[in-house]
Amino acid sequence: MRRKLVAGNWKMHGNHRANAELLAGIIGVRPFGCDVAVCVPYPYLSETAVALAGSDLRWGAQDCSAHEPGAYTGEVSAAMLAEFGCRYVIVGHSERRQYHAETDQLVADKAKAALACGITPIVCVGETLAQREAGQTEAVVKRQLSAVIHALGHCAGEMVVAYEPVWAIGTGRVATPDQAQSVHALLRAQLGAATAHAGDMKILYGGSMKPDNAASLLSQPDIDGGLIGGASLKAADFAAICRAAG
Ligand code: PGA
Question: Is 138 a catalytic residue?
Answer without folding.
Answer: no
